[in-house]
Amino acid sequence: MLIKPQYVLSYQPLKGSARWVGWPLQSSDLGSVDRQEDFRPDEDLPRNFTMIKPTDYNNSGFDRGHLCPSDDRTATESDNSATFVMTNMIPQAPSLNRGIWSDLEEYCRTKVKLGSEAYIYAGGYGEGSKGSNGSASSIASGKVSVPNRCWKVMLIMPEGDNDLS
């Protein structure tokens, strides 16, 4: 398990990705910082783990799909940058990542902007899915498993009961 100021995650070294990532979302997490786009290996992993690199996704037909979205951490550059480590990514079909997954993320942020707060967990399960290049069970010469399904649980509540502190 990796505990970061922006989120917590359970990592699967044999699959090259997180089991799940969990984070709170409140209005103070949302600001005007630009997307940092600084994809990189996670230096917090133990040295004996394989470091997944951003280039491991190149030409795979899958997006580097954020579990904790970049747009959920726009209060500071360092918070936004933290969402670009590869342990926060799973292979996602572009149609999912840029479609309903993105819509669900935006729905949650909209609720928070309107006075709610949220606890969110996201991950993937199973093996093998169809990307823009066809079906695959793994990418990066087998270092990263492609999940069959992506899931997200959002608990959205009225803001102000100090339940996130």
Beta-strand fraction estimate: 25-35%
The CATH class label is: Alpha Beta
Largest sheet: 5 strands, antiparallel
Overall 3D shape: globular
What is the string of helix and strand elements? EEEEHEHHEEEEEE
Count the DSSP helices.
Answer: 3
Instruction: Estimate nothing, just give the exact number of structural domains.
Output: 1
Number of strands: 11
Residue share in helix: 10-25%
| Computed CA radius of gyration, to the nearest angstrom | 15 Å
Quote the distance from N terminus to C terminus. Answer: 21 Å
Q: Could you say what the CATH topology is called?
A: Extracellular Endonuclease, Chain A
CATH architecture: 3-Layer(aba) Sandwich
- Overall mean pLDDT stands at 96
CATH homolog superfamily:
Extracellular Endonuclease, subunit A
Question: Would you tell me the structural class of the helices and strands?
Answer: alpha+beta
Major sheet strand order: 1-2-3-6-11
Low-confidence stretches: none
Key attributes of the depicted protein:
165 residues, Extracellular Endonuclease, Chain A, 5-stranded antiparallel β-sheet, two-stranded antiparallel ribbon
Task: Provide a descriptive summary of the structure in words.
- The protein is an alpha+beta fold and 165 residues long.
- The chain has a single domain, classed as Extracellular Endonuclease, subunit A (Extracellular Endonuclease, Chain A, 3-Layer(aba) Sandwich).
- The protein contains 3 helices and 11 strands.
- The chain has helices spanning 77-82, 94-97, 100-113, and strands spanning 2-3, 8-12, 17-25, 63-66, 89-92, 116-125, 129-131, 134-136, 138-139, 144-145, 149-158.
- The strands form 4 sheets. Strands 1-2-3-6-11 form a 5-stranded antiparallel sheet, with helices on one face.
- Strand 9 (138-139) and strand 10 (144-145) form a beta hairpin.
- The protein starts with a strand and ends in a 7-residue tail after the last strand.
- The model has no long low-confidence stretch (mean pLDDT 96).
